[in-house]
Structure formats: C-alpha cells, structure tokens
Amino acid sequence: MTEKKAVVLVSGGLDSATVLAIALARGYQCYSLSFDYGQRHRAELDAAERLSRASNATEHRVIHFDMSVIGGSALTDMDIDVPEQPSEGIPITYVPARNTVFLSFALGYAEVVMADAIFIGVNAVDYSGYPDCRPQYLSAYQAMADTATKAGVEGRGPKIYAPLLHMTKAEIIQQGDHLGVDYAQTVSCYQANESGQACRKCDSCRLREQGFSLAGRADPTRYY
Amino acid sequence: MTEKKAVVLVSGGLDSATVLAIALARGYQCYSLSFDYGQRHRAELDAAERLSRASNATEHRVIHFDMSVIGGSALTDMDIDVPEQPSEGIPITYVPARNTVFLSFALGYAEVVMADAIFIGVNAVDYSGYPDCRPQYLSAYQAMADTATKAGVEGRGPKIYAPLLHMTKAEIIQQGDHLGVDYAQTVSCYQANESGQACRKCDSCRLREQGFSLAGRADPTRYY
Predict the structure, then answer these.
(1) Does residue B150 form part of some domain?
(2) What's the structural domain count of chain A?
(3) Contact, A187 vs A181, CB < 8 A?
(4) Domain span at residue B30?
(5) Which residues in A lie closer than 8 A to residue B100 (C-beta atoms)?
(6) Which pLDDT tens digit goes with each residue over A34-75?
(7) What is d(CA A67, CA A55) in angstroms, rounded to the nearest whole number?
(8) Nearest to B162 by CA among B133, B140, B189, B187
(9) Does residue A223 sit within a domain?
(10) CATH code, domain carrying B51
(11) What number is the ipTM of this complex?
(12) Could you tell me how many CB contacts below 8 A there are between chain A and chain B?
C-alpha cells in the first residue's frame, strides 16, 4: 500500500500546528514547509521546527526569501508599526500575495515529493479581512494549480485542503486539544521576542487569547 | 494624467528583454523584477540588471530564494546534468511551479506599487513541454489573482499579459529588433559562464541560435 503524502504549510502558530495534527490524523505522511520571509516574528520558525520534529513529519524544509524587497506590510517593513488596536477592512499586517507565494512553493514541493495533498491553515472566520483566506480564493487557486504542473496536467496534482476554513479560533483549539497538540510550543504573536514570548497586544495575540477563553481552557501562551 | 504601471518579469534572457521593450512601447512605467533562485545560469541576473537600467525601468528588484531546498530540476539541482540533446515530453530543466512562484511574487509587487499589469515572457510555441507556459494556465492564474489580493478584490487587480505566447523565437527576435532590443546584452544559456558566454549545446541555446537563423539575421550571442 502506497502511503498518502501531504505538504503541510507550518508557520509555527496555533492554526498550522492544528492543521499538521489533522493531516497526520488523516493518515498522511507529512512534508512540513516553512518560510523565513523577513517576518518580524522569527521565533515562529523555531516553533515550526519543534512542532514538525515532535509530530514525526517526514521532513521539514524552510525556504528563505526576502519579502521586504517589495515592502508593503507591517510584518516585513520595519518602517510600519504593528497596530495594537483592531482596525476596519484589510489590516496593515496583510502581506501582499503571501498565501499565493506560500501555496506556490508548496505546489513545487508537492510536485517534487509527489504529494497528493497540500494542507494550509487559512481561516475565513477570524481573518475575514485577508483576501487570500476566503473560500473563493482557495477554489481559484486549486483550478490554477490543476493547470500549472506536470502532475496537475497528468491529473494527479495535489488537492488543497484548508480544514480550519470555517472554524472559529475556539473550535480550532478544541480540535487540536482532541488531537493532542501542545499549544505551549506554538507562537502566534506578530512581534514575539526571540524566546517566543508574546506581546498580548497585537491582533494575533488578542484572537488567540480570546480563543482559549472561549474554548473554556487555560491559555498556555508565554507572554513578555 | 496617471501613468500606467507594469511589473515586468525580467530574467535577462532574450524573451523577457523583448517583453520589457514591448511593455515600455505600450506606455507603461516599468517595475522590473528578477529572481535569484539558485539557478545555474547566474550571469542572466547581471543581464537583467543591465537591461533594466538601459531601458529606463523605474526600478529593478531582485528577490532571492533557494529553489534547491525543494530540488527536482536540472536548473537548480547540481546532481542532475543539463541535457544536451532534445528530449520528449516535459524536460528535466522544468523547475517545479516556477512560473507560479514568479507570478506570485509579481502579484505581491504589483499590489505594493499599484501596478495595472504584469508582463511575463512565457511562450507556448517553443516551450510547449512546460505546463506553466500554456494559455489555459495563464487564464487560470488570472482568475486566481483576481481573488487573491486587496487590489483584485476591489476590482483593480493587475492584468497579466504574455505578449510572446503565440510567437515563434524568430518572430520574437524580429519584434525585438523593431523595438531596438540589444540581444548581445541578453543571456539565455542554461549553463552560461560567469561572463555570460553561452554553451551552444543546451535546449535554450539551440532554440535561440535557430531563432536568429530563421529571423534571417546574425547571432550576436557570445559562446565559450
């Protein structure tokens, strides 16, 4: 029996840790992929490495690229401050075309390892301000991916799964608790320090803290 | 009057040099974008820089990433030799999801500079073995791009143009000659040396040499 393979985008945050656990629970041999793209919160990369190793992912690869070359986001442009209040519309922490770039590398990696699936932790509930976290975006990406690669053209291209798409943060945490995810090992903060401690102020910290509270369990996050 | 802006993917080769000249001739203010992705033929990056400067592109940015992290192509994997004979089907020089990755960075850059267009020098005639050089791929990419970004969602996302899509190499050269492209400055060879001299043996060299011959003009390429 050939084992099913999946490329899993693992950022080191709460969502992608849960997605990795879901992919493993669905029986996939997992190829974990992370990006060092000049983001402020590099502690998440250490978390991605730890999580991938702890979960017995087959391999963990990190692709380095410098998104600050094109600028345009508080997460990669050091001249723009990370906001500490919720904002209307698309937030300044939005990185232009980020999920498109991530999925495109995943598509290439999937082709090399001949993966059947790509798992991504996007979520349309809490992050509805990000255009590339919506169902219609993922469908359009799938249609494009099916024409883009050797595997796609031959009808064996990877299916893109976003199992968290319609879940609230609390539901994600409950699912992850059920699968044994160690959330103390994850880093979600946009401006975490080098030890992975969180600010408790940015959008990402606020959503995470609220998620643990609504899930009715203690918040294991280490704050500075 | 607001000037039209275009992100132009410039590799330093014959095709993208022609595309840059076409975008400029169509009145676009051009933002030239190149990639250092661990390709063997790095001399093309110097060519991209020279061409962008000579053509008065508004800016030229280079994004570095390491495609060899995921492997799978003779162009980035030093364990695979560049073939010197034409092959059937999809060639081993195909880089998994390369144009998808390139277009995705272009999409992000287009969003930052608020570009109306993205120009890419793909060609379905000479490179029909590459899945991501076909018209149906580009249409699917456009549909995805229109859902992927802030600009796309607001109905002002960039249009993707591939003006060389249905041209033969000889037609591309004739068009470029008409627009004054200096082909001696371009590097197409998959294994060019550091001074940008070409091998005259790889697929890319063969197609280029044949193109100059069919265009009925002298080949300005410097061979080693």
Answers:
(1) yes
(2) 1
(3) no
(4) 5-214
(5) 104, 107-108, 144-145, 148-149
(6) 998 876 667 888 999 999 998 888 899 999 887 777 766 555
(7) 29
(8) B133
(9) no
(10) 3.40.50.620
(11) 0.88
(12) 146
